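Hey, resending since the last one bounced:
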Amino acid sequence: MADWWPSEEEYTPGINKQKWLEMLKNTEIFDLDSLAIMKRMLDYGGSAACKELSQKYGKTVAFYNFGSVKLAKRILKETNCSLFPNEKTGKSRLWPILYQGADKKTDNLFIWRLRNELWEALEEMDLSNIPLYSELAEESSIEADDLTEWWPSEEEYTPDIDKQKWLEMLRNPDIFNLDSLVIMKRILDYGGAATCKQLSQKYGEHDAFYYYGSVNLGIRIHKETNCSVLSKGKEAKKILSILYQSKYPDKKRSGFLIWKLRSDLKKTLEAIDLSNIPLYSQKDANGTSENDDLLPLYTEANFLEDVFISKESYNTLKKLLERKKNVILTGPPGVGKTYAAKRLAFSIMGLKDEGRVKMVQFHQSYSYEDFVMGYRPNAKGGFDLVEGPFYQFCKQAADDADRQYFFIIDEINRGNLSKIFGELLMLIEGDKRGRSFSIDLL
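The structure tokens again:
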């Protein structure tokens, strides 16, 4: 293990334990995702690679990587703390606000370690209501003494939001974004009450989509209305009660909690037109979207929110890709290159259309026969000519020439490009495509 970098002598953000504690209690800075990252880092011993956290606790590598960078950005805005400069690019790094880093040479990973003052502040925080494992988020974040009846009752608690205010917020995309409306429509279609597991099994998306989507929506509503919240209980439970009442499916208090839409919210949802909101995840058996009108929009603003990159760099990258027809993203393992590439494609298409984005991963044994086309043995003892993913995707794009398609190659440096692309290697260049550059195969 190399020395932790940057050292205390080289850089410190100058944030003391008291200030960390103050920010940790501020949900606009340390949101639920941020606290989940912090709790998992602490549980891992205070230092870990994003990949290690992903493998042990769930969520993608990008969740920890970009989640940490976005958190550091909010801390910078709050404190105006100093930044550590990147000598190669001249730009400042954000992650050292939270961590020191080191290479783990045995696994070729880059590890982050919590800064001492932040570490000490976290150890003083009660993080018992923050899910340690993402798969257990629903069960570990919501607990009540007795949830065999709908809880909290109308007598115990109501957020005091009338139908008119719900209607106003439902029309505000900064509060009810597309994901929020999808969740609402699916619960409504299920009869107004369902568990995250039931919604996932019937309509698609992971359980966490419904859980975290509801929590984040509740936070936005509370910020907008300053509505009352439950006086006791865990934070996530208080927030979710703005939207739902809940109970266990049986008296044994086993299984997943059922959420029931609050009556005023349900009546408002029934009164508005949700016909343009997708009820089911819009993919067929081949992963192709059925109807662009039902797909989530994905804009430049969405990209800049999801990926830590400046608007100027995004515009440069977009123009390069549109002109050259291909770009190569480089960087250390686990920094989110594939994550960024996919969202770059979505932002250019303007839609989150998985059916027009294909990804493969190269490795040392990958060949032209795997990638483009080749003979494969069949059950009869002979051979069949089998189309590879690149050939199939090109045919799909050719049949839909009015729309853009994107092919992403992960780990391109691990493959033998001349062996994989063969005669197609020249066609990688955008100005060498078309029939005039066709090559006869001998």
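Confidence is low (pLDDT under 50) at residues 135-147, 283-294.

Sorry for the duplicate.
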